Amino acid sequence: MRLRSLFSISVISALIFAPLVLAAEFERGYFRYPAIHGETIVFTAEGDLWKGTIHGGIAQRLTTHPATETHAAISPDGRFVAFSAEYEGPEEVYTMPIEGGVPTRATYEGEGAVVVGWTPDGKVLYSTEKYSTLPNNQVSVFDLKTGARTLLPLAQASEGMYADDAKTFIFTRLPFQGSSTKRYKGGTAQNLWKFTEGSEEAVPLTADYPGTSRNPMWWKDRVYFLCDQDGIMNIWSMKSDGSERKEHTHHRGWDVKQASLSEGRIAYSIGADLRLYDIENDADSALHFTLPSDYDQQRDKWVKKPIDYLTAAHLSTNGDRVVLTARGQVFVAPVKDGRFVEATRNPSVRYRNGRFFSKDSLLAMTDQSGELEFSTLPANGVGVPKPVTDTGKVFRYDGVPSPNEKWIAYVDKDFQLFVWDVTKKKETLVATSNFGPHDDLTWSPDGEWLAYVESADNMFQRIFLYHPADGKKLALTSDRVDSYSPAWSPDGKWIYFLSDREIRSMVQSPWGARQPEPFFDQITKIYQIALKKDLRSAFQPNDELYDPEEDKKKDKDEKSDKTEEKKEKDEKKDSTDSDKKSEEDKKSKKEEPVIVEIDEDGIAARIQEVPVPAGDYHLLSVTAKH
Fold first, then answer.
1. Are 33 and 71 in contact (CB under 8 A)?
2. DSSP states of 153-177 as a string?
3. Where are the beta strands (DSSP E) in 165-233?
4. Average pLDDT for runs of 10 along the chain of length 626
5. CA 359 to chain centre
6. What predicted TM-score, i.e. pTM, was given to this entire model?
């Protein structure tokens, strides 16, 4: 009985603990900034430093501060770890025993101090802008024993390490340029240089490649480094003179971000993972760590002020409701009395930029398919989202539906402007820019014309019109001044816009004795364009050539013609579908229809100034009276 009881207890215990063991075994972390020394690896996860081995397994937490600890580097003797942290506010260099303990502050630069590595004789290398008169990173050396700081004689150096002779310094010129753009080859691309003690100047090692080369490491007379020469950042090596370049890893997709070398092994981060590359055996393997953590960032938390998380807000056509997007979900709130609606209920899907598409439906972007696509959502929260587009390839921005529900205009990160035909389910490329995304997408009242802003080759903003029915484009403004924020009049006869054309300096004599610079603070004015010839501006005073009664009669006749035209269409539709009419449809027949007509000839010459003083204006909108 006793043996049987013990066996039962063992089985029950195994059943209880097995799920816990499996959960811990497959718990994934976000690992960055690895540092390796022998078989020890220190890395950043959850904003703290952790220590493990090249065999993976359970890692040990070394720091617990709420701010982030990064850029760890282990001393040559393996006793200490240097890292960058924000214990007292600014990012400075700290050191602590490799077994853990109280961190000791090493720098007081106040301009940021990022650990680069160690010298062969046990001094800390770090990068800072403190000693540069220009915004350049330079490498400095800190002696733990004496507290002395020595700036290396290099005007630009963001990373670096010494070769075995302790005299040759291989360094990365220029800091990270700020974006994760692949295959970047601009003027701030990082590249590798070599400086030998006693030499007059440093010499480039990767000057023959215009892309990025960075993160140098030394092993057996070769420089190992990260480079995107094959299109993706991988581990490469070369001789100390830059010759015999060789690629060692061949990852596709994710770039290798940070790397550290010790005794012929390179620990590196890629995506959210850490990997280990064995140089001698040309072997690459994944490192699997388990973090004994309470994962505080994954706990449910109360949101006390939801408005702080608001990312988009758009009114309905008649202004009775507003669509709110917050924390990836879409809501509809009444302006006065009514029901607050949760339009999306799938927390695994992120929604962006909810708008009203029609009276009863919303339009929003969703990442459910893996790409950003547009979907419609029931405005009352009853029902499921319905996909609209299926052509997503790159990051898209806010989509703007037309008032007649026929089109959706949107831009993407490739600086392309598209219009989606809702009926035909077809995407049309409208325009491509070389300098930035198209702005201020605005539909005409009848939904048949799209106004948008595009940067010209000289970087000035221009306003264009696009007619999706036939693909026609019109340029409203030239490339001589900035023009933007187009707004249609409700009757479809005018387009108002902002333009920077008031060049008047606040400084009376900008080239006087003390020669201050000219200062332009109120450069923007409001302008209007008549879409039809012979339209009279509402701001033009009456004169002997103007008969207001004749103008009223002409306007009345024009509205009557449009009303009759719409009435005929409605009657034709009524004859085939009379039983489905609602009170709202009957009411809409009484409304005056808006049909936008444009005289294209000489349209850019019909620009008129609105009699409003110059100012600092943004986000122009227009009503029938204001």
1. yes
2. S-SS-SEEEE-TTSSEEEEEES---
3. 168-173, 191-196, 203-204, 213-219, 222-227
4. 42 43 58 98 97 96 96 97 96 97 96 95 96 92 95 96 95 91 91 95 96 97 96 97 96 96 98 97 96 87 88 93 95 94 93 95 95 95 94 93 97 96 96 94 97 95 97 95 97 96 78 72 94 90 73 65 59 52 47 85 93 95 93
5. 31
6. 0.69
